[in-house]
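Re: your question from the hallway

Yes, I did run it. Sequences:
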Amino acid sequence: MRQCSGKEPAEVAVRSDAVLDTVGLYCPLPIIKTAERMRTLRAGAVLEVLSDDRVILVDMPAWCRSTRNEYLGAQPDGPEYHLFVRKGA
Amino acid sequence: MSERPAGPDSTPRPDRIKAIGLLSGGLDSTLAARVLLEQGIEVVGIHYSTGFCMNDHRRALARPDEDPRRMRNEGLRAGADLGIPIEVLDAGEAYLRMVLNPRHGYGKRANPCIDCRIFMIHGAAEYMREHGGHFVFTGEVLGQRPMSQHMQSLKLIEKECGIAGYLLRPLSAKHLPSTMPERLGWVDRERLLSISGRSRKEQMSWSERFGLSDYPQPAGGCCFLADENFARRFHDKKEHSRVEEIRREELILLKVGRHFRLSPGVKIIVARDEAENRFLARFEDLGWRFEALECGSPVTLVEGEPDENLKQLIAAITARYSDRRGEPLVEVAARRADREERLLVPPVADRVLEAYRI
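Structure:
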């Protein structure tokens, strides 16, 4: 479990139910692994994805829009990003 | 063949027809999906990651001055714009084996376009069998590409991917024989398009009509396999290797740096900038790595086992691309695992160098 206060666009604290580390992987592997991990979660659960591919800040919101999951935002953490995605119904 | 070749649901109703399409995110595939959505058909996009996409490679290099929006995944962007789910699939090792041994040969470069289409459509058909769906579609346009999109190739691709009659090309449908989805009334043929040829004007006009404006520039070329420089290195690699032993890493390395063949068994890759240095550093386990000392230097990665003479030459080439290229002698380190050797060499002359360039 992890708490974070996202800056964009999540203003409120986000509590993640699961964490996926994709650091060192580049497009589209982080998205493929995100999709696989999301299949194992219940609706409403929040997945935290760690990535050092800054283009994921563009791709993850797009993937969420197309798959009807909710993109909650991202937080930079040194050279990495923590992205938060809530599984859709 | 039964009414439909795939999917667990054998009694499809016209109000829930589902199409599985290859979606690169380019103009043609996006428009093809949009044409079917206009008919109320449910669409799922399959986006393949082949390992040869130039965009993906630029991402892996992670140059800080690159605009992230220019490196976005176009399939995901198109899926979001169209409001359809996208399944991103890793083409994996099977795709590499196909690229190295295409049954239908290469185009002008290293592009096995016919086999590539068969591979991907076959994959979409597999996805349809597993997840349900009624037919497969693509954004292929009759006469647009010399190798894979003339009439004979389109027929061959359909035949070989095992879903004859259930492969729809919405953009050129009216130039092609009617498919089962049309004959069964799942798709209204009259509302499909009759585009052909190399010009993209008609696609652009339709896209404007459908409100699609955010797509990559047509025919920009995103595949390394169709790139002249990459193809030269690719065919050199095949010529000097046992094809069945070529590994994924060796093909990835064809995308980066300057390449020089020094002997039948030894080639080197010299990074061109800091981003390529960082990229090559990930592969240093492959063999020897050379770097000029006490100055800005490229990383030079060696494939094969160089003898002492070749080590001198590799050091001289590394020195040539270092910041000390104007000096008479440059000290270069050669490292492999825990070993380090130091060589003092003059930078190689350009006229000598050119004889080795791939």
